[in-house]
Amino acid sequence: MPSPTPFGRPIGVARPVSAPATPAAPGPSAPEGSPAPDDAYAGTFYAQVGGSETFRKLTERFYAGVAADPGFRAMYPEQDLGPAAVRLQLFLEQYWGGPTTYSDRRGHPRLRMRHMPFAVDSAARDTWLRHMRAAVDSLGLPPLQEATLWDYFDRAAHSLQNTPG
């Protein structure tokens, strides 16, 4: 059974799909189709850390690290990392209590299934974690929020390793 998060959902299990009471047009930093009003998610970890803008910064910094790492970049088949960044941002926003745009567009996250085509060994896992660590550190979150976010990334990365070594 997957490990529960501090918010009751197991890793990789999306919260039930439900739209906010009053969806609005996306703001300038929200991925296309993302409901904008972060205040609709008050009380969630998503809102506590700064909503869409924080997750945009996180994914932007993460993929800048990936792009600058030729060996690791080879794991990403798309020429343009932009779509992967949007998918990660939408997934993280939903996972942490924000808009359900990820599931609305792509269905259930099925993280293990979606990562199966890629050989994720301990070296790939550790490289992913190194780039994500730099991205998390760049946010300057309060210690408890940073630790909560990092704990999830560490557990998720280990759970997605699918190749020995």
Notes on the structure:
The protein is mainly α and 165 residues long. The protein has a domain at 51-159: Globins (Globin-like, Orthogonal Bundle). The protein is 52% helix and 0% strand. The protein has helices at 45-48, 51-67, 70-73, 82-95, 101-106, 111-115, 122-139, 143-159. Helix 2 packs across helix 7. The longest helix is centred in the last third of the chain and has 18 residues, at 122-139. It starts with 44 loop residues before the first helix and ends in a 6-residue tail after the last helix. Mean pLDDT is 83; it is low at 1-30.
Give the SSE map.
Elements: H1 45-48, H2 51-67, H3 70-73, H4 82-95, H5 101-106, H6 111-115, H7 122-139, H8 143-159
Helix pairs in contact: 2-4, 2-7, 7-8
